[in-house]
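A.,

Following up on our hallway conversation. Structure tokens first:
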């Protein structure tokens, strides 16, 4: 096992609460944050694409995908005490505490549909449209990650902690992560 670092990599299902939970963790732990999803959304917006179309674009432009994912490992080379909010953060920084957040797809679609921050790159008229788009994105990401990196992000064996956020508050999730993280740090390498 790689040496442990004071880094938490947070990934999971779409709309599982990664952004909200990471905001709580950075405040509670006094940690920094690295979000490569913001970088991807910025690129999508600059290209005039919604996030799902951008995912389709990435399938044919692996060099951009590699650049996005590599950015987390590059950041980790020079930083400590931070949260990585990234789909493949666990893969990019294997010495991090690796957390996966799961959520029921119906709850996720409702959350995403009502999230005003997503409206720049996701605009749907119904929750069902949002759900169908999320399922498509999930499939596109999984295919791309397997093709480019040979990994399955949904393989729970990749993670130190898996939490189903469907019926938990973000504060409850953050507490579970902190408790498990402190135990992980105290364990021998």
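Then the amino acids I'd put at each of the 189 positions:
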């Amino acid at each position: 096992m790689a040496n442990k670092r004071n880094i938490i990599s947070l990934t999971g299902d779409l709309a599982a609460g990664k952004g909200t939970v990471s905001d709580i963790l950075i405040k509670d732990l006094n940690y920094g944050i690295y979000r490569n999803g913001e970088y991807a959304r910025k690129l999508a917006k600059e290209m005039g694409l919604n996030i799902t179309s951008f995912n389709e674009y990435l399938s044919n432009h692996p060099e951009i995908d590699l650049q996005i994912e590599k950015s987390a490992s590059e950041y980790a080379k020079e930083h400590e005490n931070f949260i990585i909010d990234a789909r493949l953060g666990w893969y990019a920084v294997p010495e991090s505490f690796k957390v996966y957040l799961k959520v029921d797809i119906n709850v996720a679609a409702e959350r995403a549909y009502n999230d005003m921050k997503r409206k720049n790159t996701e605009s749907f008229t119904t929750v069902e449209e949002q759900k169908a788009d999320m399922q498509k994105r999930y499939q596109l990401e999984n295919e791309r990650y397997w093709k480019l990196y040979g990994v399955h992000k949904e393989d729970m064996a990749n993670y130190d902690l898996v939490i189903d956020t469907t019926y938990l508050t973000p504060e409850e999730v953050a507490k579970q992560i902190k408790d498990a993280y402190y135990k992980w740090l105290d364990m021998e390498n």
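Residues 126 and 157 are 35 Å apart (CA to CA). Curious whether your intuition agrees with the design.

B.
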